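Ticket #4471: structure export looks truncated?
Reporter: QA, pipeline team
Priority: medium

Steps to reproduce: submit the single chain below to the structure queue and open the exported record.
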Amino acid sequence: MRRETVDVLVLGAGAAGLAAASAAAEQGANVSLIDREEFPGGVLDQCIHPGFGLHRYQQELTGPEFAHRMVAEVTSSGAAFHGSRYACCIHPEDHTVDTLGPTGRILFKPTTVVLATGARERPFGALAIPSFRPSGILTAGVAQRLVNIDGVLPGKRAIVLGSGDIGLIMARRLHLEGVEVVAVLEQRPFPGGLLRNVVQCLEDFEIPLLLKHTVSCVHGTARLKGVTMVETDDFGAPVPGTEEFIEADTLVLSVGLIPDNELVMEMVSMDQGNGGLRVDSQMRTDAKWLFAAGNNVVVYDLADWVADAGETAGRHAAKQALGEHPTDTVTRLVRGPGVLHMVPAALTPGGGCHVLLRVDRPIVRGRLTIGNAASKVLHGARPSEMIEWHLSEDQVHDLCRSTEVNVEVTIE
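Actual output as written to the record:
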């Protein structure tokens, strides 16, 4: 077993991890970045569609182009990358991280750790749909990898369950590759993806989006033969008598992401509203030596925002590793009426920060307030689209005079 001592160890080489590693190295820290894949980039490498980089680089890029730029930043920063290496255990008592890879076991001894482990897709088994589990059922991410990386079509006639962004993008991708996409089904009365993806991926290609519809049964033994589609009420429950059989050999699932935090669930607090790790405005967890950024904190809309969060985490992790003492003064942000997801969960004085949140229902016109220091009008807010709000250093300073600050959305 080899031992390595580093200032900052970053786990995960997706958008958040790459940004964290380069930001930490630019602060002068000794940084190591590990990922279980052979090459850095994470899921970006299979996202060949455009839409990346508009915020970070002021230029529209594809996923691989976005990843290439970020990998170049890591390389020039001097951070060390360890591919095909899996972090199997974090020891909180001595802050060591046990990893396995092709060259054997390496025990890292970092001063601070940045968790950028992302999220995994919710599988078919979690949906409790009656079925013999035939082949032809796969998540949107797996379908994307099969088509874009391996050059394999999953079937000839497909139904997409769930209207998350990956599902919308894969509906378009399958259509362009010659697969008949019957429809995209969404259980809720509004789509789960960005409005631009609804327009560009479905409406532009005349792919039906059926709101308040879901799959109640899957047919087939060895191979999928079809599904039973059913309408749902306002609470998502099936409406009796509305069942309809649809022939299909492929069912693509886009039913949500689950933040991947198994390594640290026993040592840090979780945010029950977001489903991920609880962090402050410096992306620090309540274990002061652990930072987190990306989809393991909250599922973001844009990779650009993920990279911004990673940059914040890497910068503060490096400063702490190099001797800056973390502040004990934090102001808790309390999720109030109208707020579904929110990050960060607390404010730390000493700089401005970005607050990202989702409303819990579509709002034509409303008002978002953060304590008594900040207020803004919302127009056409939707749960599927994050609201970004930059708080200045002065606003953060004013809010940090209280121990708790309410964040709420009211309808006007």
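Status: closed, not a bug. The export was complete when the record was re-opened. Leaving a note from the reviewer for reference: The first helix runs from residue 15 to 26.
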